[in-house]
Amino acid sequence: MPQSFMYGDHKISYRLTENPSLRTKIRIHIHSDGIVEVEIPPAKTPEDITKAIYKRARWISNRLNENSVVRANVLPRAYISGETHFYLGRRYQLKVSENNEAPSSVKLKGGHIQIILPIIDSAAVKHRLNVWYRDRALEYFQRRVESLSSNIPWVEVAPTIKLFSMQKQWGSCSPKGTLHLNPWLVRAPRECIEYVIIHEMCHLKEHNHSKKFYRLLDQQLPNWRHLKIKLDGMAELLLSE
Ligand SMILES: [Zn+2]
User: Fold this and answer.
1) What is the distance in A from the centroid of ligand 1 to the CA of 174?
2) How much is the pTM?
3) Cys-Cys with 216: which of 10, 83, 112, 202 at CB 3.0–4.6 Å?
4) Integer angstrom CA distances of residue 116 from 48, 82, 95, 124
5) 180 CA to middle of ligand 1, Å?
6) How far is the CA of 136 from the centre of ligand 1 (A)?
7) How far apart are the CA of 240 and the centre of ligand 1, in A?
8) Ligand 1 mean position to 196 CA, how many Å?
9) Domain map of the chain by residue range?
């Protein structure tokens, strides 16, 4: 029979299996489908078991989170209520509702991305959500580019931005000085977005990845390496549709 415990506001269920080959140790496995299995030696009391599980609660919760991120990544998105989508580095749950008397809309409310459509179907939800992402992306990137421009000595006028969906790239800088930014970057944490924008703005002065370029980048954003690693680690997740 599955049992459970609370960790923060999450209910974590687990399955107990008696393993006679264990003498005193309690073993905990997290299966790839998210099932938590607790192997116990026959002589353990329920209190011992609870204590052992609580001791590793944080570890179990972390592993389950990693697991669900990986699974969310593998599964194609269904664009249904309850599904997780990212915006500015935060996870939001989709909440889709039908209303054929109001115009379609997308709003952030609490931890939700609320979508109202005249008729719900996953293709329509996907389309409406993507339009919203692009709108938010352009608005947010423009605002950031403008404010970052004032701190970068070689930028006199904030460069023009164009959204450009790219498979494996977050941004690029045209020879004429237009910044092309991937709209899905708006799913990333703010500091990672800032890193991409500053990287591209350094190209306004140094067009290739020369030593001079990296010197500029180091001056403008000393911790950019850390942010690059963070963003690269999330790339698959943020770019998946
Ligand atoms: Zn570059």
Assistant:
1) 11
2) 0.69
3) 202
4) 50, 14, 8, 11
5) 11
6) 24
7) 22
8) 9
9) 3-74, 131-239
